[in-house]
């Protein structure tokens, strides 16, 4: 039985069937992970000249000290069948990276109109990725976590309404997933920001052909967030040239647009597994990267309970345009102001150009638990350096 089919059978991460008396069913999952990074502090590489860039001391959240919290988490899900197609689901998750503070990840009401259409209202998962349905359930896939570059959006759930439509399309099982909603919370953008994502729409289409599946997704939203430390930069431009560049520099106006496109394909016949995924994020009207492109290829082979695997991935970013200050570049008196503005839009911590290789082994030592170990070699081309990361984890469902 392949991992995806085994997941739904073993851990019940989807809605569990309860009794007509609204019996509550509890399920859960956990990952206890550890890791340590080797950061290549290349001699002579001095980034201090750029005030908007800091030399990274971490790789995927790990530094050169053994850490047991970054990818560790514990979640509990409660679901209840209320009868006549109505159900309720809530999921609470605590992450080691968030000091084990428990947060409500899901809280929604579902209603099955018929065998093919289900409506969902409340806090729910956005269908961005191949593994969106069980994004936090490490037991569901061969890695400890999915590739960070491709799975880089700072949020994965929204408050809104959705619909899941399933039907047979020839020999394929077709699933259409639509969600619309709004998010008003702190998000990790260039740093933690008070953000508002409105008019959010997302759609994904998945076709399952027995051992093979295809997936395509699209999402868009209006993006607003507060960047108070850049307000003096806007004021300096106003003083220097009499131009208000708040719309171009700040992200607090209503004209900032963001979109997401994703494609994926998987093959899993119980012995071999192969996965590839492509994601593209575009943002307009902010100092965030204008375009973020990531893709990866992963291959694994099962030998009984042991699955060795290897993944190659690439992450590329393009800076937002600073063409709005081009008319002033010949003015020597504005050189410092221009340098500062260019630095805001060309932050080396954000405008990345990376490639990486991850080799790992998954050992299913128990019917509901797996031990995983991975080694990643990461080429941060924007820093001209090569770093590495060793991670290990126990993932379980219950």
UniProtKB/TrEMBL annotation:
InterPro entries tied to this protein: Gram_neg_porin_domain, Porin_dom_sf
Signal keyword on record: yes
This protein's GO CC annotations: membrane
Keywords: Signal
Stretches assigned to the Porin domain: 15-380
Leader sequence residues: 1-22
Keyword Cell division tagged: no
Pfam families per the UniProt record, alphabetical: Porin_4
Gene Ontology molecular function, alphabetical: porin activity
Protein name, UniProt field: Porin domain-containing protein
Protein species of origin: Saccharophagus degradans (strain 2-40 / ATCC 43961 / DSM 17024)
Lineage, highest ranks first: Bacteria, Pseudomonadati, Pseudomonadota, Gammaproteobacteria, Cellvibrionales
